[in-house]
């Protein structure tokens, strides 16, 4: 049976002949950013199903392809659609693309998502810059035998999201007059949304937003010594004393509104990476 490193090598062997320039920045495009890749000067677009060992995205709003190219002269690779634990994939499968990015030489990973806002100071379509996270998914992508070629056994997580990148994102958002928050993201398994009692518990634990992704990718990126920036679009308000039934069509509409903000913000961040 092939190990993780061997599977990553298979994917790299397939991808490298199709790539003009090795990427410095990786992007995971969440709900609401389906059109973002139009800003990329694309060199190659590769469907997930063609890449050895890549899972297949089952979420309808996710295109399911890797886009290689440049953005503001910076070589990047963007995931149009991610994989979720609730889809039935293992944590290692969910995070396999991050391992591939690691092998391609990605130094900075920008993760985006759509989330439920539990902080009453937040508003719909706000962008929360993630400063810390809580893993309530019941699993960890690093569980099992550690391969030292990928990272150390016990990676430090005192600052999972790079402080300099947080500061840069805040500065660029201010210049663009984009309203942002800075807070804690908590990840749950899903796919059901939470009960009122669960929202109360999550808020009391110190979380500002809740979602079903991002944390596994962040853990693996830290294990791989990448710098990570997390950007979350608040798509619905999850206030237990004023909770209404979720309307997915409204959530997707707000996600698209927030996605337009991220489509302005992310290129500015990349342009100022130095």
Any idea what the CATH architecture is? 3-Layer(aba) Sandwich
CATH structural class? Alpha Beta
Query: From the alpha-carbon coordinates, what is the Rg to the nearest angstrom?
Result: 18 Å
SS content category: alpha/beta
Strand count, sense and barrel status of the largest sheet are: 5 strands, mixed, barrel
When the domains are counted, the total is 1
Number of strands: 9
Secondary-structure element order, as H and E? HEEEEHHEEHEHEHEH
Q: Kindly state the percentage of residues in helix.
A: 25-40%
Number of helices: 7
Structure description:
By secondary structure, the protein is α/β, with parallel strands linked by helices. The chain contains seven helices and nine strands. The chain has helices at 4-15, 91-94, 96-104, 163-176, 196-204, 215-223, 248-271; strands spanning 25-29, 41-47, 65-71, 74-80, 108-117, 127-136, 180-188, 209-211, 227-237. The protein has a five-stranded mixed barrel. A hairpin with a 2-residue loop joins strand 3 (65-71) and strand 4 (74-80). It is globular. The N and C termini lie far apart (42 Å). The relative contact order is 0.20.
């Amino acid at each position: 049976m092939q190990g993780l490193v061997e599977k990553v090598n298979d994917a790299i062997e397939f991808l490298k002949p199709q790539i003009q320039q090795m990427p410095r920045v990786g992007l995971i495009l969440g709900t609401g950013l389906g059109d973002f890749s139009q800003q990329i000067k694309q060199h190659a677009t590769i469907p997930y199903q063609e890449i050895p060992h890549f899972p297949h995205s089952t979420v309808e709003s996710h295109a399911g392809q890797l886009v290689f190219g440049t953005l503001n002269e910076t070589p990047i690779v963007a995931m149009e659609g991610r994989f979720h634990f609730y889809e039935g994939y293992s944590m290692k499968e969910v995070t396999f693309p991050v391992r591939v990015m690691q092998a391609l030489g990605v130094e900075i990973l920008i993760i985006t998502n759509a989330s439920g806002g539990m902080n009453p100071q937040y508003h719909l379509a706000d962008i929360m810059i993630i400063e810390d996270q809580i893993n309530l998914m019941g699993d960890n992508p690093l569980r099992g035998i550690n391969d030292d070629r990928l990272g150390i056994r016990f990676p430090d997580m005192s600052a999972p999201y790079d402080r300099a990148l947080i500061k840069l994102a805040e500065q660029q958002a201010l210049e663009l007059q984009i309203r942002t928050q800075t807070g804690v993201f908590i990840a749950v398994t899903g796919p059901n949304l939470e009960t009122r009692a669960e929202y109360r518990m999550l808020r009391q634990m110190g979380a500002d937003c809740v979602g079903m992704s991002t944390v596994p990718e962040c853990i693996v990126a830290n294990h791989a010594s990448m710098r990570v920036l997390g950007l979350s679009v608040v798509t619905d308000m999850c206030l237990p004393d004023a909770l209404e039934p979720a309307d997915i069509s409204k959530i997707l509409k707000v996600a698209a509104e927030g996605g337009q903000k991220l489509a302005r913000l992310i290129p500015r961040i990349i342009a100022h990476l130095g």
